[in-house]
TrEMBL record:
This is ABC-2 type transport system ATP-binding protein. It comes from Nonomuraea wenchangensis. GO terms for molecular function: ATP binding; ATP hydrolysis activity. Belongs to the ABC transporter superfamily. Residues 4-233 form the ABC transporter domain. It is a peripheral membrane protein. Pfam families: ABC_tran. It comes from the Bacteria.
């Protein structure tokens, strides 16, 4: 069963059509990639799926519910992380996680925060203010926050863009493990094709606001006669 179903989404910003026609699905426990060149409409698509902006046309169904009509219930089962979403900088890491744990009305907020601090190796930073963290450290706080409510769907906009290769590799492993253990599905954007090959069960290619290709990395490579996803990307992006 699809836990996310987007149908024919359209979004215009004045004269710019950011998203022209996007339909996609994410199945239970599936890790799906949304790929495409800068300005293709990936973030705009995610923001519509999250109810942050309203589509000009099309519909979003989450967990079998129409987002427009069951907003609170649908959104309570997912979470989102992106490097461009700022956490309150003056708060300490522990305070931020506590605040979100309470906001999500978790049954055992302290225990859950402690679990995620351990999982993301945030122990040395809990007393530090968010603004005093490096961008990679901040990313780990973002991801810990995003997993607090054990979301059935985790939406991640370039989750590893700020991470060094070692941290990126560890976070990829961790996210994959969390997805497998908790059955959380993920929808991820990334410009790192090796990451996408490693993590994603399926990918959607977006170009000029339209989904131009979809399938597993292997299927797409086969279809485009390419060695790997990097080569598929270049072929798709260059038309
Ligand atoms: N609020 C806005 N107002 C006007 N134009 C916008 C707005 N948000 C996005 N756009 C435009 O919509 C298009 C798609 O942007 P979007 O951020 O979705 O791309 P993206 O695929 O996420 O790119 P990137 O890989 O660079 O993150 C771009 O042309 C962008 O300039
Ligand atoms: Mg983007």
């Amino acid at each position: 069963m699809a836990i996310l179903r987007a149908s024919h989404l359209v979004k215009r910003f004045g004269p710019v059509t950011a998203v022209r026609d996007v339909s996609l699905t994410v199945g239970e426990g599936e890790i799906v990639g949304l790929l495409g060149p800068n300005g293709a409409g990936k973030s705009t698509t995610l923001h519509m799926l999250l109810g942050l902006i309203t589509p000009d046309a099309g519909s979003v169904e989450l967990f079998g519910m129409e987002l427009a009509r069951h907003r609170t219930e649908a959104l309570s089962r997912l979470n989102f992380a992106a490097s461009y979403v700022d956490l309150p900088g003056v708060l300490r890491v522990g305070e931020v996680l506590d605040a979100f744990a309470r906001l999500y009305a978790l049954r055992r907020p302290r225990e859950r925060v402690a679990e995620l601090v351990e999982l993301f190796e945030l122990g040395p930073f809990v007393k530090r203010r968010v603004m005093a963290l490096s961008s990679g450290q901040r990313t780990r706080v973002q991801l810990a926050k995003a997993l607090l409510n054990a979301p059935r769907l985790l939406v991640l906009d370039e989750p590893t863009a700020n991470l060094d290769p070692d941290a990126g590799d560890r976070i990829r492993g961790l996210l994959t493990r969390v997805a497998a253990e908790n059955g959380s599905a993920m929808l991820i954007t990334s410009h790192n094709m090796r990451e996408v090959e490693r993590m994603c069960d399926r990918v959607h290619f977006l170009s000029g606001g339209v989904i131009v290709a979809a399938g597993s990395a292997a299927e797409l490579a086969g279809h485009y006669g390419a060695e790997d996803l990097e080569e598929v990307f270049l072929k798709v992006a260059r038309g």
